[in-house]
Each structure stands twice: as structure tokens, then as C-alpha cells.
Amino acid sequence: ECPKNIIEMMPENQKVTVLCNSKDKGAVARKSCTVACIACGMCVKACPVTIKNEDGTERKAISIVNNLAKIDTEHCINCGLCSMKCPTNAIENQIKEVKKAEIIEEKCIGCTACARVCPVDCIEGAVKEKHKVDQEKCIGCGLCFDKCKFSAIKMNVT
After folding, report:
1. What is the CATH number of domain 99-157?
2. CA 65, CA 53: separation in Å to the nearest integer?
3. 3-state class (DSSP) for residue 155
4. Beta carbons of 67 and 37 less than 8 angstroms apart
5. What does the pLDDT look like over 112-130, one tens digit per residue?
6. pTM of the model
């Protein structure tokens, strides 16, 4: 256990983590951690996962609590968007194996469900037309794969 209570244990399958858990803000936090969350909220804005609370409100799989980014490990999909947007590099993405989505043309009916859930707008195609994935933009989050009811998307290791 960390004597300053700034290191948090995470589940083994959680690949996106906040590096420092100091509840201080900005420069004060940097006295405890070399990499510190400044509670700017960029990670929350970037998170593609929206969770409905029991009271009808919504939240993301990452939030700012007591000046610190906190990851909801039960809902985080390990896409790494939060780590890409973090201006202080306080969020680490440990994913070694990058996957990219690919549309299986024979199965795609052009329903656009995949394009609507893509957080980086990398899927193109009009309604009732075969869709294509821009491999340069795809972050491999798998949201499109999960959403496709026709098994028309596969995730390839790059």
C-alpha cells in the first residue's frame, strides 16, 4: 500500500490507468507525482462510453472526482482516447496489441449503426451502401464491432 495513498490497484485486464492518484491539483500535485492529473476534464470529453445512472442521469467511464481522473473499470472499454487527450500524460494506455476494425462487405447492409457509435468518425458510407473503415483514424475501441447486429465487422490485430 502506498504511504501517500496516491497509487491505486487496478484489475489486471484494465489497460488504461491514471498514473497518479494525488488529490491535489496542478502544481501542488506535481510535488507528489512526476505525472499528475490537473482535473481539466479533457479525458471525460473524449470518453465514448456513456453510462445511464439509476436516477436517469448519464456519466462517462471516466470522471473527475476530487481533482482526479477516476476510471470506472467496470465500464471502461480500454480504447485509450482519454490517454490520447490528456495534456499532462497522467493517463497511461498499456495496450500492446492494437486492433483495427474492418467491414466484411458481403455482410454489411449499410444500416450505419457502426458509424453512429464510432467516437472518431472513421466509418464512412451512406445508408444502404457498403461501409468502409478509415484505418488511419480507427483506434480499435471495438464499439462498432459490438454494435453491428449482422456480424459485418471484424477486429484485426495490426
Report:
1. 3.30.70.20
2. 16
3. strand
4. yes
5. 999 999 999 999 999 999 9
6. 0.67
